[in-house]
Design goal:
Elements: H1 3-6, H2 16-36, H3 39-44, E1 47-49, E2 62-63, E3 72-73, H4 78-100, H5 105-127, H6 136-159
Antiparallel strand pairs: 1-2, 1-3
Helix pairs in contact: 2-4, 4-5, 5-6
């Protein structure tokens, strides 16, 4: 790596600060796309539409996917996408600060909480509310939030000294 590039990387030992920086940069890009298009956010938040009731009623409800019901829909609106983009951008700023101030207990805890909240959000949308279904769109955020949360929890004593 060139010294010009590495001079911008967090100056701490270990990979966690660099990971936080990487996730932060990717999250900024994700925030920008949330403001510019619905398609990527709709990949995360998509559900299967249950068929209309046999009585001929017009109501359609969202449910978790099954092999027998391939029709999908997304509850994502332009407003919800922008709100998600703003939330993601705020999280990325906190994680960016943590990448460069990883020894600060308060900033470390804030970054840890961003992953805990993200994990709770994605899992509840999948398991409780049914507005997300397992697939490539949901897998990325779930793996990043789960892995980062576990990594930060396990490495706290290495980076933060009381």
């Amino acid at each position: 790596m060139s010294s010009a590039f590495t001079s911008h990387l967090p100056p701490f030992e270990g990979l966690l600060p660099k990971w936080l920086l990487l996730v932060s940069v990717i999250s900024v890009a994700n925030s920008i796309q949330a403001y510019s298009t619905l398609s990527y956010t709709q990949r995360v938040y998509s559900s299967v539409i249950a068929p209309s009731p046999p009585s001929g009623g017009l109501s359609r409800t969202l449910k978790q996917p099954s092999a027998s019901s391939p029709e999908t829909s997304s509850p994502v609106t332009p407003l919800s996408a922008r709100t998600f983009g703003t939330w993601t951008f705020l999280s990325s700023i906190i994680r960016l600060y943590a990448a460069y101030h990883i020894n600060d207990p308060l900033i470390y805890q804030l970054a840890l909480w961003t992953y805990a909240i993200a994990w709770g959000h994605f899992m509840s949308e999948w398991w409780i509310f049914g507005t997300a279904r397992w697939g490539a769109g949901l897998a990325g955020p779930v793996f990043v939030s789960t892995g980062s949360l576990a990594w930060m929890w396990l490495q706290k004593d290495f980076y933060v000294h009381s």
